Task: structure prediction
Amino acid sequence: MHELSLMNNLLTDAIAAANGAPLRALKVRVGPLSGVVIESLQFAFDALTPGTPAEGARLDIEETAPLFHCPHCQTSYTTPVGNYQCPACLATDGELRGGCELDLISIEVPDHV
Amino acid sequence: MCDHCGCGHPHDHSHEHNHNHDHSHEHSHNHGDGHDHAHAHAPSEPMRTIDVRKSAMAQNQRHADQNRGWFRAKGLTAFNLLSSPGAGKTALLEATLKHLLPHAAAIVGDLQTENDAIRLRASGAQAVQITTGATCHLDAHMVLHALEKITTDGLKFLFIENVGNLVCPASYDLGEHRRVVLLSVTEGEDKPLKYPVIFHHADLVLITKCDLAEAVGFQREDALKNIRQVAPRAKILELSVKTGAGMDAWFAWLAG
Result:
């Protein structure tokens, strides 16, 4: 359950960025190689937000796929986790370029605040 | 008070650190009601979107960068050892520390007890225990403070034995140079397929307890195929701490 401390980081950054405004939504990007479980992130969000400016806010999660670059044929490709073969030349030693992220992308706050 | 991370821990000596602080900037734009995604709030409430673009790992990354700077300043190579509980990390380290004396030390993480550090100190090497309480992994900040207890004179190798867990520790960069993931023959050949993330990030996968392979019906070719599928860039070595088979190749990899 390291998702609890990671969600705490995301919420701390979101509340700071809102600068006193109530949060209506958080958009979080999760890579499949980040090592976090999305259901656990949602659980942590629901557990941590009551009594904070993020109470009642929506958690929008954008899932990405592992992104690789093939050093042999220079193809960039995305794959399911556990199958990293280049679709063009079938090499399996692609260089990982994305899929480890756990990022707070943006927040939504009421415009009038 | 710790000057480096502001965490309130006592900090009794200075060390050199890289400070790569990333700074987020924010800008806003108006966001009207004409958009088509669902909202929990009243539809008439005008919204403003603020870009943040900050990683949940940013703080850990800063501490990992500090650790990296410290390893570099001290001329150390650091290894992060990961596996499920009972795969043989501590037994491997006992033999490894003894072999590399006096040039190796260890930091060892467990939820409770000093048992592993006591075991490792019997080899004659320094060993610092981190007890994490309820936390299922080591993070760079815990390691940063454990480093304060390491005497680095003559030291060349630092081993960080992570909490036994194949999930959570995968997410945390500790500042190490190399990641080593252990898979014991008693665990089953499909473990890499079940926990692909931790294996994917490995520089070396060590198959341990090979002396038991026959007794447990270990399917070696299946295991190698599964490791190569989820960790195509990792080197694979097989060893038995008990018989000593394969240990020379492990020591050669450490030195390389």
